[in-house]
Amino acid sequence: MAELKVLLTSGIYPPDKGGPAHFVSTYSKWLANTGVNTSVLSLTDQDSTNKEDAGVKVSLISRKHMLPIRFSLASISIAKPLAKKRVILMNGLFLETLLAKVISRARLVAKVPGDIVWERARNQGLTSLTIDQYQGKERGGKKLFRFLFTKSLGKANHIIAPSLHLKHLIESWGIKSEKISVIRNSVDTELFAPDVSISKRFDVITVCRLVPWKGVDELINECSKRGLSLAVVGDGPERSNLEKLAQGQSGCNVTFLGDIPHKNLPALLNSSKIFVLNSHYEGSPHSLIEALSIGMAAIARESTGSAEVINDSENGLLSGKLRSLGDSIDLLMKDSALIERLQRGARATALAEYDQELNFKRIKSVLEGVL
Question: What sections of the sequence does the record tag as coiled-coil (predicted)?
Answer without folding.
Answer: none
